[in-house]
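# nightly structure sweep
# worker-07 picked up a monomer target from the shared queue
# config: single-sequence mode, recycle default, output format = structure tokens
# input follows
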Amino acid sequence: MTLQQLKYIIKIVECGSISEAAKQLFITQPSLSTAVKELEKELGIEIFYRTTKGISLSIDGTEFLSYARQILEQTELMEQRYMGKKPSKQLCSISTQHYAFAVNAFVELLLDLNVDEYEFTLRETRTYEIIEDVKNLRSEIGIIYFSDFNEKVLKKLLKENHLVFNFLFEAKPHVFISSKHPLAKNTSVTLEDLDAYPFLAFEQGEYNSFYFSEEILSTIPRNKTIHVSDRATLFNLLIGLNGYTICSGILSSDLNGDNIISVPLITDERMQIGWIANEKVRLSSMANEYISKLKKVINEYGFNI
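# output follows
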């Protein structure tokens, strides 16, 4: 086993495929595949599951990756201490549903970062892909929510993938609407009030199950529904079509301006929002710092943690 082989494994996980990792490493795909198979043979484990859809980390591979990262981190510290090597870039990757507080925390993390170089990733993506990202360690942390409707299914999926949910806060559902919406002056709204307006939801792709929906109360029949893939499009349609979406209620005017407002939705439903991580992995210092920033931002919005 060599340090180069450990770097190969980490690069494959970062890229999500052997072919892309080979390109970035400037070696051939067969050479990289051979190096991985030789390491697996030496260790007596299968690091990656290989299917027609690509590769994913095995349970043994997840544990191995955690050790590999620790070894490379310690090696780098020794090289800095005794060889005067320049510190490598700070790395961190987060996957999240579309939450303003997650972006706010990310901004604060980078503003407080006192390093010359970094390479961070913030993925606002689909629920199933968040789980896959954290399972395969493409992201250290994922941010999702539980409701009475989805909790049993999502907890089962997390358990099967050796992921742990860490509670952050409970939110009462709100709707985001345009500041010029006919209901904008209401102190609260009901689903019946919203019946005439288009409901906007983030599409979930191949896994477009109600259990993976980012919007609570998604199973209620509606006459008008529009699925979108990004936050900017959703906000434009909120304004242009007097649409609405259902969310946690946390809205950042610094990031999103004053054209969108948050109005409480009258319902008994609640959102349990938290972060997930792989149970076999020790979080990096940057990931832990991001969690601290999350809690700080959430507290500033008036939620007790």
